[in-house]
Amino acid sequence: MGNRGSKSMILEEDIVVKEQRVDGSCIGVPRFLQNSLPMLRCTLMGLERDYQIRNLSKVLHKKEVRFYSTSNNKNKISLNPWFLTGFIDGEGCFRISLTKVKSAIGWRVQLFFQINLHVKDRALLEMIRDYLGVGKIHNSGENIIQYRIQTSDELAVLIKHLDAYPLMTQKRVDYILFKEGYELVIKKAHLTKEGLLKIVSLRASLNSGLSEQLKDAFTEVIPVTRFTDFSVTNNLNCNWLSGFASAESCFLVGITKSNLCRAGYQVYLTFIITQHIRDELLMKGLKEFFGYGRLSRKRDVYEFQVSKFSDVEKIIAFFEKYPILGEKAKDFNDFSIVAQLMKNKVHLTEEGVAQIRKIKEGMNRGR
Q1: Residue 210 shares a structural domain with residue 281
Q2: Distance of CA 140 to the CA centre of its chain
Q3: Total structural domains in the chain?
Q4: What is the mean pLDDT of residues 275-297?
Q5: How far apart are CA 48 and CA 60, in angstroms?
Q6: Which residue segment(s) compose the domain that 117 sits in?
Q7: For position 30, what pLDDT does the model report?
Q8: CB atoms inside a 10 Å sphere around CB 321
Q9: Residue 229 lies inside a defined structural domain of this protein
Q10: 11 contacts 23 by C-beta, under 8 angstroms
């Protein structure tokens, strides 16, 4: 979709696409089971400020399978800088705003970085804000809060962080364009016609491009070429991956009828990350990093999926060491509980299937 980093979920013969952000987690079954249809709970949105937000809560999953409120334990929690970058790769948005005003140049240029989350995730946004030491949190619609950085001094702090801990997805291209715009504003070039046109050219290649109003106002502007030739596959950082997974992954528990199982049902676990083909190198890097799982492509989507039980146990061990943050930590916790029940063969009994079904019903969309 233009220049935006779209993400998709493969659903048998169809693909549901999310534009940087989807409403909630996916639920259902993987492709290799044909008896039922997997589902991705998502809503396609037009502007970042209007996005419905996946719920990330005030919790941090620990190896002991306990949850801690970040608001009550700030002194005990240290946010890893690579985790923050990974989370920004999944949830951050870089914006250059152009507004018509009565001035010599005729336009006001504003730069923003923002993360939108559900209101229950205020503690997580506070954790990010406190780590960077800049930015503000405010309401941004019904049940939505926004963490925003917009002053030049505050943006300098974010830029310093992302230069030291670079983004790994194609969002890095948006960041490069955003940073160029920031440097023009710092030099006050946006107050000249030449500088303004440069910023409009950057804006034309950022996210979804120019609005119809801006296209009509700047008919002579040519979008800058998006730089895409950068390596993201070398030495993926474990903490980056936990941050990215906190934003983009899905932990699924599935139950399907089966005549081959004594209880009449088959229980399975699946870990999934999907990305647009623009991030082909990253997705191949994930497969290489873990050394297991399956990477497949369908149309414009790559999906990394782990479903073999012995590999699922490895995924659980990884995220116990490099924890998931937010509401998804609860899904990971339930996912781990079901894995332990399966290891103990509880899923082979009718009572065990009923117990797992109750856990499943409280995960993802049902939470």
Answers
A1: no
A2: 19
A3: 2
A4: 93
A5: 26
A6: 81-217
A7: 46
A8: 10
A9: no
A10: no
